[in-house]
Amino acid sequence: MSADIKVDQVLDAKGLSCPLPILKTKKAVEALTKDQVLKVETTDPGSKNDMASWAKRTGNEILKVEEGSGTFTFYIKKSA
Amino acid sequence: MAQQKMTIIASKGSLDMAYPPLILATTAASMDFDVTIFFTFYGLDIIKKGMADKLMVSPLGNPAMPMPVPIPTLIASLPGMEAMATAMMKSMFKKHGVASIGTLLDLTKESGVKLIACQMTMDVMGVKQSDIIDGVEFGGAAMWLDSAADAQINLFI
Question: Which domains can be identified in chain A, with CATH numbers?
Answer without folding.
Answer: 9-77 (3.30.110.40)
